[in-house]
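Entry 14. Ran structure prediction on the chain below.
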Amino acid sequence: MKKDGFLFNLLLIFCGGFFDGYSFLLRDKVFANTQTGNVVKLVIYLVEGVDPLPVLFPIIAFVVGVAVARILERKSTKKDVIAMSVELALVIGVAFVPRSYQTNMIANCMLSIVCAFQFQVFHTLKGRFFATIMCSNNLRKVVENTVDGVIDKSKENVRFAGEVSLLVLAFAFGVGVSAFTYKPLGTYSALITTAPLLACLIGIIVAESKNKSGERLLN
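Output, C-alpha cells:
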C-alpha cells in the first residue's frame, strides 16, 4: 500500500472525519482536526467572557504536534512508521479517557496531536498535496481539476477530481460513523479508527520492507 495512493488516503481521511465528529459530539464540541474552528471559537469566547481553555489547549497541542512531526521528518528515516505508531497509540489512549471538563481537554489535545502528525507527515495523493483532516482545500482541488480537465481536455485531471471527490465523501462518511456510534459506544467508539490506522501502519511496514529488498538486489 503506497502512502500517497488512493487506498491509503481513503483510510486516513475516513479517520480524519471520524476524529472531528468524535471530538465535537463527545468532547465539548471542540474540533480536533484543523484549528480554524477552534480559533474562531477562541476569539468569540474571549470577547464574550467564556472560558477559552477547551479550545485553546487543542490549538497549542496541534502546533506542538506539527513541530514534533517536522523534527521527526528531518531527523528520522523511520518517520512514517513512527508517526503512524504514535497516532495509533494516542487514539487507543483517547478511547479510555473518561468524559469530564478536564479530561475532555486532555483527550482533545491527544487527538489534535494525532491530526497534526497526520497532516504533516501524510499529505500527498499521487504526488500532489492532499489533506486527510479537512475538506476545504480538497473541495478546491475537485473544482480546480474539473475545470482544468474540461478546458485542457485532460482525462488525468478529471480522474484526479473524481478520486478527490470520493475521498471527500469518505471524510463525510467518517463523520457519519462517529454520529451513529458515539451514543452506544461512548468514548470507546474511537477504537473504530484503530482498524484503518493499523492497516496503514502495516502497509507502510510492508512497503518499506519491499524497498529494502529491492535495494539489496540492486546492490
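The longest strand covers residues 124-125. Will compare against last week's run tomorrow.
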